[in-house]
Every structure is written in structure tokens, then in C-alpha cells.
Specification:
mainly alpha
Length: 161
């Protein structure tokens, strides 16, 4: 696969990761579709192995999401700004502390947004708890899986597999 196609696949996967944070956007499906596109062109053992394992992981994540409580966005004050902060925090955490940093980064982004909005540490922590109870776990599970798949794809592409 040549560089322009790799960049397009990466863009589709990035849009999928960002789409996880926007209700109604099929972010997981976009990540999987980008990976499928890449694997269909590569046709190597690492590409197929990654596609199969990513498919299994993303299916398990969908089942886990169904088991979590439903999203209640309006009741806890989730805003677009908060979603941007949480997504940026998760991405930054994922890069700084590979894989595991996404979780504290996500929560740190929500905390930072609420601290700026509310002003005090105690109110920001209370708001973080209510957001994580209402929607955070569901979004975090899906975001973490999509970041994991995207990171694995980047590793395979970087190593030439």
C-alpha cells in the first residue's frame, strides 16, 4: 500500500476514534472499516491477524457496552467541550503512557474541563464522578478499544509487517 492510501486509512481510523466521542457517529465501525480496507490491500499474515483480533475485540466491546447502563447525557451536564477535553486527554495519555494512559487521560480531560467551568477542586471531582457514572464508562470502554486497535495498526505499519 502506498503512502497516500496509508494516510487515508489513518484518517478514517482517526475519524473513527473521534467519532466515539460524538453520540450517533459509528466510531468503532469507522475504525474497523479503515483496518479492513488496509488488510484487504496488504494481504499479509500480520494484517489478517490484526483484522481478526481487532474484529473480536470490537465485538466484545459492543457486548460490554450493551451491558452497561444507558447514557444519560443531559442530566449530568455533558457538553461538546467536555467531550473534546476528554478525547484530547485520552489521546494524549495514550501517547505519553502507551495504552494504559488513555484511562487517566480521559478522566483528566473531564476534570480539567469541569475545573475550568466550576472553579473549585471539590466541585470538579463531584462532577467527574457523576459524568463517569452516567456516560464515562461506556465511552471509555469504546474509546480505549478503538485506540488500542489504531495503536496496533500503527505498530504493524511502522514495523513493515
Amino acid at each position: 500500500m502506498d503512502l497516500p492510501q496509508l494516510l487515508l486509512v489513518g484518517l478514517v481510523m482517526l475519524l473513527g476514534v473521534l467519532g466515539v466521542l460524538v453520540p450517533g457517529v459509528p466510531g468503532t465501525l469507522l475504525v474497523w472499516a479503515g483496518l479492513l480496507w488496509w488488510a484487504m490491500h496488504e494481504r499479509t499474515a500480520p494484517a489478517w491477524s490484526l483484522l481478526v483480533s481487532a474484529t473480536a475485540l470490537l465485538l466484545v466491546v459492543q457486548v460490554v457496552k450493551w451491558q452497561l447502563p444507558p447514557r444519560r447525557l443531559r442530566g449530568v451536564g455533558v457538553t461538546r467541550r467536555m467531550a473534546v477535553y476528554a478525547g484530547a486527554g485520552a489521546l494524549l495519555g495514550f501517547v505519553l503512557v502507551p495504552v494504559l494512559g488513555a484511562v487517566p487521560g480521559f478522566m483528566g480531560g473531564i476534570y480539567l474541563c469541569e475545573r475550568r467551568r466550576l472553579g473549585s477542586h471539590g466541585e470538579a471531582v463531584t462532577s467527574l464522578r457523576s459524568v463517569m457514572r452516567a456516560v464515562g464508562t461506556s465511552v471509555l470502554v469504546e474509546l480505549f478499544a478503538c485506540l488500542l486497535v489504531t495503536g496496533a495498526w500503527l505498530a504493524v505499519v511502522a514495523t513493515g509487517g
